[in-house]
Design brief:
By secondary structure, the chain is of the alpha/beta class. The protein has a domain of 173 residues: FAD/NAD(P)-binding domain, CATH 3.50.50. 32% of the residues lie in helices and 22% in strands. It is built from ten helices and 18 strands. The strands form four sheets. A seven-stranded mixed β-sheet has the order 6-5-11-12-13-10-14, with helices on both faces. Strand 5 and strand 6 form a beta hairpin.
């Protein structure tokens, strides 16, 4: 193995570590270069979700298949409370998990800390404060280059009863939603939007006030706040100058709700496979991820154009479904009518001109097509 040059990966996030772990398990030498001082510095110990509805394969089986051990916080999501813009409250239930809660950041039991430990146990050379240029990397996993969605989050420790709540209101979270997760003594409140990014702090404050009015919860004086980004675009190539772009660096994300951890892990694992099997990375990810991303674009279009009336219908239907996981899987299914609608959405929403998305020619959304919302009023 010493006669073979190490595989060099830029970025120590889920996609980079998924690639590193797969390569190391196959006996390859691997270097992971992270520009920051530690893993997970973008995050604040917040609760996030690995979605479980876009694939038939359960998340635990998926993780086993790609060689990821569960040495991090990992809890199934089987129920939640949804609120529509009028404050109507609906309970949703699932026979099988519609997702799995994990935590992000540099703290103990986070996904980031767990993946770092797994990589090091396999002999991966992880170098912090080391910026590796993309043209010197075999795999680029450096995170989003351009925001297509933005979330502000706040997390804190709490003794409040456990709850999972999601608030659907385009006026308070344009194109997105707000959410409150309280699990195992950790609380996370967030507001995610796809438009009007400069006002994210205002949307966060209004969403928080509305959530408190609907179902009050205690926020201590000591909290942590942070911002996270969604990066979505469609492309035919996720390679450039021999480097494979994975995770958010390659725009691999679901556009409906902006969830991307499963995409990140999948794309990283596929990049490793392309090296180990001497296969074309673009062919691998196109077969496994491209159809799902195209469907998520249509889902995003329906989510926004339906307005708050459409969101109310979604909340009602989700509550009436006997199994929310199965209902949500139907949204992710690639149907004939979504395949017909996709090129129309791409034509209407297409961005023309230069942008910051990488690595090469792609489709991305014009900012002129963002959802339009009325001005926010005073917080009451």
């Amino acid at each position: 193995m010493s006669d073979i040059a190490p595989i060099r990966i830029a970025g120590a996030g889920p996609s980079g570590f998924a690639a590193a772990i797969a390569l190391a398990r196959a006996g390859r030498a691997v270097e992971v270069h992270e520009a920051k001082r530690d893993v997970g510095t973008r995050f604040i110990g917040d609760l996030q979700i690995i979605e479980a509805a876009s694939e038939r394969e359960p998340v635990p089986d998926f993780l086993d298949r790609i060689g990821i051990a569960r040495n991090f916080y990992f809890r199934p999501a089987l129920s939640a409370t949804f609120f529509d813009a009028r404050g109507a409250q609906r309970e949703i239930r699932a026979a099988s998990p519609f997702g799995y809660f994990i935590r992000r950041g540099a703290e103990k039991r986070t996904l980031d800390r767990g993946l770092l430990a797994q990589a090091r146990e396999l002999g991966v050379d992880v170098r912090f404060n080391s910026r590796l240029a993309s043209d010197h990397a075999d795999i680029v996993a450096t995170g989003p280059a351009s925001p297509d969605g933005l979330a502000r989050e706040m997390t804190w420790r709490t003794d409040d009863p456990e709850r999972v709540e999601v608030y659907f209101n385009h006026h308070l979270a344009p194109g997105g939603y707000a959410y409150l997760f309280i699990l195992d003594g950790i609380a996370t409140f967030g507001c995610a939007i796809v438009a009007d990014f400069k006002k994210i702090d205002d949307y966060f404050a209004h969403s928080l006030a509305a959530a408190q009015r609907m179902h009050a919860f205690v926020i201590p004086s000591e909290t942590r706040t942070g911002y996270s980004y969604m990066n979505f675009h469609l492309k035919t190539h996720a390679t450039k100058a021999g480097a494979r772009y994975v995770g958010e660096a390659g725009g691999f994300q679901d556009y409906l709700f902006g969830l991307g951890i499963r995409y990140a892990l999948t794309s990283g694992w596929l990049a490793a496979r392309s090296i180990l099997e001497s296969r074309d990375f673009d062919e691998l990810w196109r077969a496994e991820l491209a159809p799902k991303q195209e469907t998520s674009l249509v889902n995003r279009f329906l989510y926004e154009t339906g307005g708050n009336f459409g969101l109310s219908m979604f909340v009602r239907q989700a509550a009436h479904a006997k199994d929310f996981q199965r209902y949500l899987s139907g949204w992710h299914a690639r149907t004939w009518w979504k395949s017909l609608l996709r090129p129309v959405v791409q034509r209407v929403w297409r961005h023309r001109g230069r942008c910051q998305h990488k690595p090469g020619e792609h489709w991305c959304r014009s900012r002129d097509t963002e959802i339009k919302v009325p001005p926010l009023g005073p917080i009451v």
